[in-house]
Amino acid sequence: MLNKVLAKVFGTSNERAVKRMLPVLAQINSFDEATKSLSDAELQAKTLEFKARIAKAIEGLTDAEEIVAAEKAALDELLPEAFAVVREAGRRVVSMRHFDVQMIGGMTLHSGKISEMKTGEGKTLVATLPCYLNALAGHGVHVVTVNDYLAKRDAEWMGKIYGFLGLTVGVIVHDLDDRQRREAYASDITYGTNNEFGFDYLRDNMKFELGETVQRGHYYCIVDEVDSILIDEARTPLIISGPTDKTTDKYAIANTVIPKLELGELIETLETKTWSGDYVVDEKARAITVTDEGWEKIEAILGIGNIADPENWDMKHHIEVAIKAHSLYKRDVEYVVKDGEVIIVDEFTGRLMPGRRWSDGLHQAVEAKEGVQIRKEDQTLATITFQNYFRLYKKLSGMTGTAETEAAEFDKIYKLDIVVIPTNRQMLRIENPDVVYRTAKEKYFAVADEIERLHAMKQPVLVGTTSIEKSELLSDILKRKSVRHVVLNAKFHEKEAEIVAQAGRLGMVTIATNMAGRGTDILLGGNSEFMARQDLVKRSLARAVSAAEGAIQPVAAPGFVRFYYQSQEFETSQQQWDDIIAAHSASTKQEHDA
Questions:
Q1: Span 153-165, mean pLDDT?
Q2: DSSP for 99-165?
Q3: d(CA 435, CA 233)
Q4: Alpha carbon of 365 to those of 187, 263, 278, 285, 361: distances in Å?
Q5: Alpha carbon distances (Å) from 515 to 41, 53, 90, 501, 556
Q6: Who contacts 71 (Cβ-Cβ below 8 Å, separation ≥6)?
Q7: Other C-beta atoms within 10 Å of 551: how many?
Q8: Which of 98, 171, 236, 327 could link 102 by a cystine bridge, Cβ 3.0 to 4.6 Å?
Q9: How confident is residue 5, by pLDDT bands cut at 50, 70 and 90?
Q10: Whose CA is closest to 194, among 134, 234, 162, 137?
Q11: Burial class (CB within 10 angstroms; exposed 0-12, middle 13-18, buried 19+) of 396
């Protein structure tokens, strides 16, 4: 009760945090007219002026702590003018002028906090403000995104602002060699995924000479979708492993035993616990228990005396792992089989994780179950969790649409505060409460009925599911109802952005696993930019850019535009790009109004 009274008088802690930034916002806005009147060359010269002011602030200092403190004070002092310069550059280069609330978001990120902004409020543009300011110190700024596509897209899109202001931009993606990685990390601002940054750190720690490392320290980091990366995936270890000399024949033997075993259940009374059958599966704990009868049956099948004898321990482990692979790991849920290879599906994002393997022989057991080639078991050479990796940074901040629910965890693990940024315009979206059903079957049929009703009205519908299996189950129900729809899951993730971008068209029904669409604008009437990309590629009006070219030069030459289509980079002339976009904009405008 007291808290409510105090909040009414003084405002909530979040309102007070936003209020404290308003005087600085007024300072930024006071530079507006002056920066608008500058020529392009004068605006670009501001970067050198800012760098000189930082150098002057730390001149003559030798103590490391004093240098850090002086540098921080200089950046804080530069903030209003630097933000005004970025805003003006954004207006001139990408035709986007930062709103006042985006300036507040930028200040929050610069102060090493989490900026919670509603979906569609422009987090990508917000990041340019603290990125530019902190890059002036010359130690490198890292921007972490959830996938390679977004890393490339943001570096290309926002890179125009940085390039205009004289800063360099690098991108870290999957298939770069050490030289290209070193160049990307040497840039003022480096975009990449959490996996790439983490694995580069591990590989650097395995190098024999300092000159061979690719990263140059951990100064300042902005994490996009911070709740997904720092909380959901935080304890997932990144592991670099190498093959052992163990043979794989025992996996195949263990796999032949499983079909002969009988699945039982746990029978609990007030006094006792008993197990029926040969083995019992605990779905919740993700564990299996083999009964005494089960072990006796296994010993008879394998023709061995006692499974508990030291020489049979190895086989015992293989049997347990094989039972796990058959009972707890389902195809198209935990993994997919693609080109004769078992590829893990990330349980948090629904994305495929090529190159990742389960440890302790589990991956080999799944390979045996699926009848694909069994690779040798690996041994761990280096490992780190995201939680520990991101705590290496001297300053850490993040952006997301949903962080407040995990506020306690952010504070406890990373000492990160959250500031909820107000929306630029009043929210019109209706946030409906949850609907609970008695059974899964009733839920899916109710969802399908609702989709059918909305589809009949031509209202676009986007459906989020938690696994490939569930997305395909719903798809089957809709097929029976003759409702046209597209399904997006880990099987089709190359087309992810393309499918999601058109989810706002009239009468469109899109079913997606929760992997989909991070960072893709769903616009009512369809996304004219994506249609233009598709058009340019299909009509051969754009040339493909090779990986080597793309890595060295992330920003297109003057008069040209670079874009991504189905994971490949293309380049076309600015004139061609403008003409095609204008053609598609007219049709999407009609659909938008409808």
A1: 92
A2: PHHHHHHHHHHHTT-EEE--TTS-HHHHTHHHHHHHHTTSS-EEEEESSHHHHHHHHHHHHHHHHHT
A3: 27
A4: 43, 18, 19, 19, 6
A5: 43, 44, 30, 14, 29
A6: 54, 57, 58, 137
A7: 22
A8: 98
A9: very low
A10: 234
A11: buried
Percent of the chain exceeding pLDDT 90 equals 48
Name residue 68's amino acid.
Answer: V
Amino acid at 200: D
Mean of the pLDDT values across residues 308-326? 90
Q: Considering the chain, what percentage of its residues have pLDDT values greater than 70?
A: 92
- Amino acid occupying residue 47: T
320-350: per-residue pLDDT in tens? 999 999 999 999 888 999 888 999 987 766 7
Q: Indicate the pTM of the whole model.
A: 0.74
Q: Is 516's pLDDT higher than 50? A: no
Sign of CA dihedral 56, 61, 64, 69: negative
- In sequence order, the 6+-apart residues with CB closer than 8 A to the CB of 68 are 394
Give the chain's domains with CATH numbers: 2-237+386-420 (3.40.50.300), 245-376 (3.90.1440.10), 440-593 (3.40.50.300)
> Could you tell me the CA-to-CA distances from 370 to 52, 263, 293, 312, 492 in Å, in that order?
62, 20, 27, 25, 21
Q: How does residue 22 score in pLDDT terms, banded at 50, 70 and 90?
A: very high
Angle formed at CA 71 by CA 66 and CA 76, multiple of 5 degrees: 130
**543: amino acid identity, one letter:** R
CB contact set of 49 (below 8 Å; sequence gap of 6+): none
- Residue position matching structure tokens 């129900």: 477
